[in-house]
Amino acid sequence: MDKSKPESSKLLCGSSSKVETRSHITFVLLLSTFAAACGSIAYGFAVGYSSPAEAGIMDDLGLSLANQREGKEVIRVVVINEINHDVFSIQFITDTWRSHWCTNHGRVAESVGRRVTMWLLELCFIIGWLSIIFAKNIWWLNAGRLLMGIGAGLHCYVFTVSCAFSVMFFTGNFFTWRKLAVIGSIPCFIHVVCIFFIPESPRSLAKVGNGNLVEASLRCLRGDDYDVSQEADEIKDYTETSQKLTEFRFLDLFNLKYAHSLIVGVGLMLLVQFGGTDGISSFAGSIFKAAGCSTGFASTMMAMIQLPFASSSILLMDNIGRRPLLMVTAAGACFGSFLVGLGFLFQVYSAFFSAGMGGTPWVIMSEIFPINIKGQGGTLVTLANWFSSWIVTYSFNFVFQWSSAGVFFVFAFFCASIVLFVAKLVPETKGRTLEEIQASMILLQ
């Protein structure tokens, strides 16, 4: 490696000399991939649980929005609004904790290892689901959702999540809210078992100084007959180089040179959330009921529409680019939300959201920040996303009772704002290196 290059350049260019080798698909690699998918599915089930379970929970526990209008049991109404989705008690606390975790360079995970960390987080998930399954009152439910929020704290938002909450919408038609919670806990138990049979992360081992175990971990993933020496050396070099970089403080994120990246990341998340994303997914049952539709049939149709559109987003993102996909789907969601406001044509909004608005901002977020602020920038953007999610989900039922059509006109306004925001500020990142993206950000700034 060229010693004359700056350390940050080494991080970006260190793998350019990679030798062509035949890739191996091993059982351990498949198991590790399956375990990662189970973690995302578990998170998706938690996100999608609220809407199909809402009516059953409120009936069994004697809760209704009528209580709030009559001025009775106001505290209970507030709590039921909180547990209907990952709101303040879960997301704000979870992401504050996640912010602390990221800005301290993952000391918790590094001290005990990635596998143990995942196991502990999944244990929180399982206890949370059990608390819901055996809930006797509203506080059991609230505690369960809090634990699930902590367990979900480090799961990434990936394609699988969209599919998982679509599955929840569909299965919610056939099971009670307690049985639905049992179904939601299944991937958590599978994930816990899988963790015992997968190796520790090679990069995690290199970070804590166990360089001699990096090759052993890679052999488990690649196969015994695969030459892992070059890959192991690259991981060690990358880790050593990253540790030589000046420690980045969280407040440095607000330096003027990072302003554009920060505005794009935070702005996208806020506009997408205020475009109705989590409010609609959390209270789909109430929306369908108010529209005079069969809740079961409408939820099934919603799941059937979301699955193919979410699948198509993977191909569209790399074929037509992030900017066009986000602008087209935001315009479509704006049109759909406007139609919902006029006549509850809900499926149009759902289709366009699944096709691009749901996942594309997260992909862009992972690409726009320079490598030295990626962790802190991602943390702040995620915190903005979940805090705005809390605002939308917490206030949705109250605003919906005030004007069922008006709330969707508000969502349409924010979806239209996304189109203008992307056209003016968001760079295209498809097929570009990190250096090229950063250069374009500087030119735009």
UniProtKB/TrEMBL annotation:
<feature type="transmembrane region" description="Helical">
    <location>
        <begin position="116"/>
        <end position="134"/>
    </location>
</feature>
<keyword id="KW-1133">Transmembrane helix</keyword>
<dbReference type="InterPro" id="IPR050549">
    <property type="entry name" value="MFS_Trehalose_Transporter"/>
</dbReference>
<dbReference type="Pfam" id="PF00083">
    <property type="entry name" value="Sugar_tr"/>
</dbReference>
<keyword id="KW-0813">Transport</keyword>
<dbReference type="GO" id="GO:0016020">
    <property type="term" value="C:membrane"/>
</dbReference>
<dbReference type="InterPro" id="IPR003663">
    <property type="entry name" value="Sugar/inositol_transpt"/>
</dbReference>
<feature type="transmembrane region" description="Helical">
    <location>
        <begin position="406"/>
        <end position="426"/>
    </location>
</feature>
<comment type="similarity">
    <text>Belongs to the major facilitator superfamily. Sugar transporter (TC 2.A.1.1) family.</text>
</comment>
<keyword id="KW-0812">Transmembrane</keyword>
<feature type="transmembrane region" description="Helical">
    <location>
        <begin position="258"/>
        <end position="276"/>
    </location>
</feature>
<keyword id="KW-0762">Sugar transport</keyword>
<feature type="transmembrane region" description="Helical">
    <location>
        <begin position="180"/>
        <end position="198"/>
    </location>
</feature>
<feature type="transmembrane region" description="Helical">
    <location>
        <begin position="146"/>
        <end position="168"/>
    </location>
</feature>
<feature type="transmembrane region" description="Helical">
    <location>
        <begin position="25"/>
        <end position="46"/>
    </location>
</feature>
<protein>
    <recommendedName>
        <fullName>Major facilitator superfamily (MFS) profile domain-containing protein</fullName>
    </recommendedName>
</protein>
<feature type="transmembrane region" description="Helical">
    <location>
        <begin position="324"/>
        <end position="346"/>
    </location>
</feature>
<comment type="similarity">
    <text>Belongs to the major facilitator superfamily. Phosphate:H(+) symporter (TC 2.A.1.9) family.</text>
</comment>
<feature type="transmembrane region" description="Helical">
    <location>
        <begin position="296"/>
        <end position="317"/>
    </location>
</feature>
<keyword id="KW-0472">Membrane</keyword>
<dbReference type="GO" id="GO:0022857">
    <property type="term" value="F:transmembrane transporter activity"/>
</dbReference>
<dbReference type="InterPro" id="IPR005828">
    <property type="entry name" value="MFS_sugar_transport-like"/>
</dbReference>
<dbReference type="InterPro" id="IPR036259">
    <property type="entry name" value="MFS_trans_sf"/>
</dbReference>
